[in-house]
């Protein structure tokens, strides 16, 4: 099974930049999207042509903001999808979806950005704790795959300029501390599992030609319950794919238990 995750920074914008061609070329079995930036009302007036996929949407209450979505190939048995964590402060921003498949639970998440002045740091840390409790509860029944834009570069290798960004949003010690703690709780950062020393990024600022110069951050992840490691066959950061300030990331799992 091939699962892809992509912060598209606006579904309407990325559709104009070859998103449908991307679907046809990559053929993911499951595609998790973050920052869809479309309300239910706007989507009802927008015709998307995602042939061969069943769509599960989780829009933010605020139009043009945040939100998540999951596209599942119609060739698969469709999962049970639940939107939210049961906490209005996060659910109104459309930040989390949980899809229960036969052999695992998939959590698609758009973690809060702490903002340049760190005014949302406490909000994010509270979100971190809430989603951790949610994931650990899910793990009691099935292994969990957490994917999405986690809005944190975990280690210095995960961003181009770690010294200059120490303490900044996305590389604040508290954010990184939570990520370390989460992984030690029984989860594997799939990219680092296969690529302990590889430098590759998934997000670039729009400023100063950052993508062209590859001055980026790795903030988009697939983290899996450790018991799924034996099924992990391939991990990719698809940094040749344009259309957003993020690029897609993907994993491929074998069906073997």
How are the secondary structure elements laid out?
Layout: E1 2-7, H1 11-15, H2 19-26, E2 30-34, H3 40-44, E3 53-58, E4 68-73, E5 80-83, H4 88-91, E6 96-100, E7 105-110, H5 121-139, E8 144-149, H6 162-165, H7 173-184, E9 187-189, H8 190-194, E10 203-204, E11 216-217, E12 220-225, E13 232-237, E14 249-253
Parallel strand pairs: 1-2, 7-8
Antiparallel strand pairs: 1-14, 2-4, 3-4, 5-6, 6-7, 8-12, 9-12, 10-11, 13-14
Helix pairs in contact: 5-7
Task: Sum this structure up briefly.
The protein has 257 residues and is an alpha+beta fold. It has 8 helices and 14 strands.
Notes on the protein architecture:
This protein is of the alpha+beta class and 257 residues long. The chain has one domain: 4-Layer Sandwich (Deoxyribonuclease I, Chain A), CATH 3.60.10. Helix content is 24%, strand content 26%. The protein has 8 helices and 14 strands. The protein has helices at residues 11-15, 19-26, 40-44, 88-91, 121-139, 162-165, 173-184, 190-194; strands spanning 2-7, 30-34, 53-58, 68-73, 80-83, 96-100, 105-110, 144-149, 187-189, 203-204, 216-217, 220-225, 232-237, 249-253. A 6-stranded mixed β-sheet has the order 3-4-2-1-14-13. A 6-stranded mixed β-sheet has the order 5-6-7-8-12-9. It has a two-stranded antiparallel ribbon with strand order 10-11. Helix 5 (121-139) links the parallel strand 7 and strand 8 (144-149). Helix 5 runs parallel beside helix 7 (173-184). It is globular. It starts with a strand and ends with a strand. The mean pLDDT is 97.
